[in-house]
Amino acid sequence: MARLTVNSRRRCLEPVSLSPCAETVLRRISTEIMAKNKQKGKKHQNVFQVANKQSKPKSKTKPVKSSLKHINTLKQEKVENLNQIFSEVQRDMKSVSKSTAKESTGKTQISREKVQESVNVDGAAQLFSQL
Fold first, then answer.
1. How far apart are CA 74 and CA 67, in angstroms?
2. What pairs with residue 7 in β-bridges?
3. Theoretical Cys-Cys bridge with 13: which of 4, 52, 81, 96, CB 3.0 to 4.6 Å?
4. pLDDT class of 115 with cuts at 50, 70, 90
5. Exposure b/e, 40-60, CB count within 10 A at least 16 = b
6. Beta-sheet strands, E only, within the chain
7. Are 28 and 20 in contact (CB under 8 A)?
8. pTM of the predicted model, to two decimals?
């Protein structure tokens, strides 16, 4: 088998004769090199396709606007409900804080009055002796 080499002076291809052993070695090396360059898993895609055949099944489009409007209305309703609930909680907290403030001032006054009262030790001793 004759190989072609490039002659740099003439810029043309010249045939080169090789021994049969060298040719087999060259064939093995060239096939190994070509096999290494192949990419695994990549399939050859045809340039021409059948007109009626679809390569990938197309997914059906979904109505985006209507679903977004539905989601937005649900969110608005939830936000309104939460706002009402939190406003009621704030009112309750204000009323509770006012009532506890009144009660706390009353309790402190009562405790001062109890401290000011003198203890009747003689009466307690008589009641204790009756038991």
1. 11
2. 12
3. 4
4. low
5. eeeeeeeeeeeeeeeeeeeee
6. 2-7, 12-17
7. no
8. 0.28
Q: Do 16 and 3 touch, CB atoms closer than 8 A?
A: yes
CB atoms within 10 A of CB 87: 10
Are the CB atoms for 16 and 4 separated by under 8 Å? yes
Which two tokens mark 60? 């059906």
Q: Which pLDDT score, from 0 to 100, does residue 99 have?
A: 78
Tell me the β-bridge partners of 17. Answer: 2
Strand partners, 14: 5
Residue 95 has which token pair? 């009323």
Who's near 5: CB < 8 A, 6+ residues apart?
Answer: 13, 14, 16
For residues 79 and 41, what is the distance between their CA atoms, to the nearest angstrom?
Answer: 52
C-beta separation of 16 from 5 below 8 A = yes
